[in-house]
Write a structure and sequence with these properties.
Elements lengths: L2 H4 L1 E5 L9 H7 L4 H15 L5 E2 L9 H8 L3 H13 L3 E3 L5 E3 L6 E5 H52 L7 H11 L5 H10 L3 E2 L2 E2 L3 H11 L5 H4 L6
Antiparallel strand pairs: 1-5, 2-4, 3-4, 6-7
Length: 235
């Protein structure tokens, strides 16, 4: 694997109650206490990639002057803060003068560059998945609504088609006008009375075309029975 892939990234993990800890609150109430805490955090950050150990190199330990320079902290504040940290067991000075930050092990997170890349990639996948799911819901609702509209349209069309074939009984005047148009001798009043008494039924079927029935009467010259006109009205 490349050097880039082997590179590690570190970060400092502070709990939500960090500033509520007794030792931190005691330090914060001291003169320059807030500066002490800031200095402490800088030391933690300097030590996280060395497992909590602070040295300039293998042969030279950090002096107070060096700590002042690398943390941009006043030298007098460094001296007084280090005494406080040592007394509260937050910092330990080892026999070889290595400064050991006692809490850094449980406050440090780390991962390789490759692991970071995979973590970011997985995070992007989760975001894409969530985005896809959020878009699907409105689409499903939209499709369902479209189905409802289509069903409603079909229903309206069906009703319209039924309405187009709906039989409307003629009046005597309507029949008389049609008979006059055809120059036949069918009695319009008798025609209307006959079928009105039968509920405009032809046999067992509802009449659909009264003009066809008129033409049947015209051919038979007399008032027909149901059997004689049944053929004129399709079932």
């Amino acid at each position: 694997m490349s050097k880039q892939g082997n590179k590690r990234y570190y970060w400092l993990k502070l709990k939500r109650d960090f500033f509520k800890r007794h030792d931190i609150r005691i330090i914060e109430e001291m003169p320059n206490g807030k500066d002490y805490i800031l200095f402490y955090l800088k030391l933690l950050l300097e030590s996280i990639d060395h497992e909590g150990a602070l040295r300039f190199n293998e042969t030279i330990p950090y002096s107070e002057q060096m700590l002042s320079v690398i943390t941009n902290t006043n030298i007098d504040l460094v001296r007084s803060a280090m005494r406080v940290f040592t007394q509260l067991k937050m910092v330990e000075i080892l026999d070889d003068e290595t400064i050991y930050m006692t809490e850094v092990q449980k406050m440090t997170g780390a991962e390789t560059a490759w692991a970071q890349k995979k973590r970011l990639y997985r995070g992007k996948q989760e975001e894409d998945k969530a985005r896809t799911l959020s878009l699907q819901c409105p689409t499903d609702v939209r499709q369902e609504k479209e189905k409802e509209i289509d069903t409603e349209i079909e229903s309206i069309r069906g009703k319209s088609a039924q309405g187009a074939h709906k039989f409307i009984p003629p009046s005597a005047e309507d029949v008389q006008a049609y008979c006059k148009e055809r120059s036949n001798s069918v009695d319009a009043d008798k025609f209307v009375d006959f079928y009105a008494s039968k509920g405009w039924m032809v046999g067992k079927n509802k009449m659909r075309d009264w003009k066809a029935a008129v033409r049947t009467w015209e051919k038979n010259r007399d008032e027909p029975t149901d059997a004689s006109v049944n053929w004129a009205v399709p079932s």
